[in-house]
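#lab-general

N.A. 3:47 PM
ok so I finally got the sequence cleaned up, no stray characters, all 286 residues accounted for. can someone with queue access submit it? mine expired

B.Y. 3:52 PM
send it over

N.A. 3:53 PM
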Amino acid sequence: MRAPAPAYRANDGVIDAATAALGGRLLHSLDAVGEVALHVDRSSLVETMVALRDTPGLEYQQLMEIAGVDYPDRGIERFEVVYCLLSLTRNHRVRVHVQTDDEKPVPSVTGIWPVAGWLEREVYDMYGVLFSGNSDLRRILTDYGFRGHPQRKDFPLTGYVELRYSEEAKRVVYEPVALAQDFRTFDFMSPWEGAEYVLPGDEKATAQAGLPQAKGAPTPLKADQIAKADADVSPKAAPVDAKTTETTAQTGTGDHHPGDAPGKNANPDVLPSKGSGRGSGGGQNQ
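B.Y. 4:20 PM
back already:
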């Protein structure tokens, strides 16, 4: 029995069909790691998407995602806007790439896929890419009055401001970022070689042991010095006499509990043994 879902289609013939459908709008294409990427002209993006949706053999009906990429080394048109399309009838995916900067707007595809409205707002919020034709291009992930675009490579990791709830003002307030401690520097050298500095607190140990203060890690102590130091600071405990018994009478063996009645077994669940003198025939199976 065949599966109800369509079989997965390979990438064979996809680039040829896209080249024939797009013509000069297709700048270059790439088939790598099992995915097809189409780099198209930004100004004709809407016509390109309509052709990819309606052309037989392509039929990419659904827009799955819009992502942004930042390449600051390019200088001009450092951003790429990537559209992930899915063909429901052929069960095949393709990526469409366009390049831009923070001034040249990208044509909006909300007239083709209304879901693009929110996705374009995310790219604008994170990268600052403008979309012409989007009727509600506002921030969607960051807070009101947020400065900058967090996904840009030149955006500081700590941000510019931080917010907290002020008990005095009874509201959320914005303050400049104040790090709790400076970034530490690590030398990553072998611990057996010793560092080029003395850690805070180590100078007390060397001074107390009477050893000379030298550059680097403190001089290691010998075993006899450690034992001597422990003997000086540790109080001597008084000797303890071991308790010994010479006869069984001193251990209380054979004595009954004071609450036991004469001739009665202390534990009612335990039968008396033979010859114990507690009743006749005790411990015998009847």
